[in-house]
Write a structure and sequence with these properties.
Elements: H1 15-61, H2 64-79, E1 82-91, E2 96-107, E3 111-125, E4 133-151, H3 161-188, E5 195-214, E6 217-234, H4 242-248, E7 250-258, E8 261-268, E9 274-282, H5 283-287, E10 296-309, E11 314-327, E12 335-336, E13 339-340, H6 341-350, E14 355-362, E15 365-368, H7 370-389, H8 393-416
Helix pairs in contact: 7-8
């Protein structure tokens, strides 16, 4: 007999029925996941499109007039320069700009500067700007021509060499402490600004005309002609780069004209060995640039200088030819950086006005020429004479002992012409 009743409908589902229900739910979840992924992808694409459109609109707005205003504002704020540009071609998508007829001027009571640049060509990467990185591939400045007038103050009161050296040492210490404090505060500040990189910087056929004025002295003109400059892989935004960075990575050359006399300067620092050359420099003309109250007057003479740096080893050769000096009778100071002017004059008379100053620093020690020996010995003797004048009693006698010990060491150095090895 068949058994039937209300409990028959609540009998457990079969295994096939359970699997079918699970597959149905999984299929619904999969369809939902596909729809969610699809709309997420659409959202991301729309976001990228909106960002790209914003960038495209922004790049379109970066036209010549915008760039010209930016350059004028930056020149005024950053360098206190009044800048004008005759023509400017700018392609933001290609990252190129060409400027022509650039004129600049800066007026100060002690320094008046104005000039113009024939053309400037810039090539840079655009997209790194979004990541606060300025990548300048090429920057070429053609035909810069500037003139400046520098007005010097009247000559200060004359001081003994000892006092001038002491003041210089104190100022150097104060500057070092100030820079240390400044670097500590800078290290605590957040890093701001852009990372600037310049792959190639070049200046072609530049000229700088300088006039130095000083009360009671005839103005002196110094002209740098046919200036050439080339540098690679500059990193101006790196800490410690500074102004020296533009020289220590560069090759430069120029003709120097002081009055009617021409000289030549060549600077090769892009690769080792690093070399600087100065040829046919008129020391009589250069002396007019210095303090006219000095005890030493250079009437005439020529300097040829070669500096060679091989990385930890360097060599300085300075040849002074036909040097004619005399003592400034109006000067209250009787020495020139501790040296007796009369002793120097007599030495030059014996050598025919020629000196060969050579200083070489190598791994095995230091080598100096005979003329450098004379200069070191005279400076040492004059320095101690000035020091001992300022002390009396036991302090003076103790300093004499120091002088004796130091003189023996110096004499030994001058005889051997070398220092102890670094080992």
């Amino acid at each position: 007999m068949a058994i039937c009743g209300p409990d028959v409908d609540r009998m457990p589902m079969t295994e096939n029925h359970a699997e079918s229900s699970l597959e149905s739910r999984l299929e619904k979840d999969a369809r939902f996941d596909r729809r969610l992924w699809k709309w997420t992808l659409v959202g991301v694409l729309l976001l990228f499109m909106a960002g790209g459109l914003a960038i495209a609109v922004s790049m379109t707005l970066l036209n010549e007039e915008w760039l010209k205003k930016q350059l004028v504002a930056q020149a005024r704020e950053g360098f206190d320069l009044e800048l004008s540009i005759d023509s400017l071609e700018f392609s933001p998508w290609q990252g190129t700009a060409d400027l022509r007829g650039v004129k600049f001027r800066r007026g100060r009571p002690d320094l008046d500067l104005d000039g113009e640049i024939e053309s400037i060509h810039v090539e840079m990467a655009i997209w790194p700007l979004l990541f606060r990185q300025v990548d300048i591939k090429q920057l070429v400045i053609t035909g810069p021509d500037a003139s400046c007038t520098y007005t010097r103050a009247a000559e200060p009161e004359q001081q003994e060499t000892f006092d001038r050296v002491a003041q210089a040492v104190v100022m150097a210490l104060v500057e070092a402490i100030a820079r240390l404090i400044e670097s500590i505060f800078q290290s605590l500040e957040g890093k701001e600004g852009y990372d600037v990189r310049i792959d190639h910087l070049e200046m072609i056929d530049g000229q700088l005309d300088c006039t130095v004025k000083r009360p009671g002295v005839e103005p002196l003109q110094v002209v740098f002609e046919e200036i050439g400059y080339s540098a690679e892989h500059l990193r101006p935004s790196e800490k410690g780069f500074g102004k020296w960075g533009y020289l220590s990575h560069a090759d430069m050359e120029t003709n120097i004209r002081i009055g009617n006399v021409a000289a030549r300067w060549e600077h090769e620092f892009a690769v080792e060995p690093r070399v600087t050359r100065v040829s046919d420099l008129d020391l009589g003309q250069v002396d007019r640039l210095g303090s006219q109250a000095d005890a030493l007057i250079i009437r005439s003479g020529t300097l040829d200088l070669i500096y060679t740096d091989r990385g930890g080893q360097f060599d300085v050769q300075a040849k002074l030819t036909d040097l004619d000096v005399e003592r400034n009778e109006e000067a209250e100071v009787r020495d020139f950086w501790f040296m007796s002017v009369d002793a120097l004059d007599n030495y030059l008379e014996d050598s025919g006005g020629n000196m060969d100053l050579q200083f070489t620093r190598a791994k095995q020690g230091v080598q100096v020429s005979n003329d450098v020996e004379f200069v070191i010995a005279e400076i040492w003797k004059g320095m101690w004479a000035e020091i001992l004048k300022r002390f009396e009693g036991n302090a003076r006698e103790e300093l004499k002992d120091w002088k004796k010990a130091g003189t023996e060491e110096l004499r030994d150095f001058l005889q051997k012409k070398e220092l102890l090895n670094e080992e």
